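Please study the protein below:
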Amino acid sequence: MRLLYVIIGCVAILWGCSQRNREAQREVQDPHQHIDREKLIEANRKYLKAETNAIERYVTERQWDYRVHKNGVYYRILTRSGNNEKAKEGDVVYFTCEMELLNGKRIYEDEPALRTLRIDREDAEIGLHEMLKLFSPGDSVQMVLPSFLAFGLAGDLDEVGMRQPVVYSIKIEKIAKQ
């Protein structure tokens, strides 16, 4: 008989614990439930406007004769080769590249480094893929990729911080057609 009371007591305790756990789970709410979507959208718009203003200040202070691509990249052509060969998806572009932040801090290399990029098939900055399609071997260009086309929200977790535009100085060396 005593054993029966012990078993009934254990079952009652377990049942009570499971009820409290269910109540606690009901109290825990979705953390995203309180985020106001419109406020986030507005905050991102404000940040994008501030970033665009910073890029415009950068190119204006340096007196760039610049163009703005439809994707938001500010660029200027330093030299045109007269060659009409352009890279397409799958082609490999060989180019020298210097990179810096808007504050003038050089990143990755002190001297121009030869890079290769298989267009639209390799992991690299989205804006770089898009812009390299516009130029031919022998062309030199400077461009400012907005953060969303460079290293994004998080940066590269190394030399490029969160939401930082990146300035590229590029010379297209050759294009290997595929």
Q: What stands out?
A: Residues 42-176 form a domain with the Chitinase A; domain 3 fold (CATH 3.10.50.40).
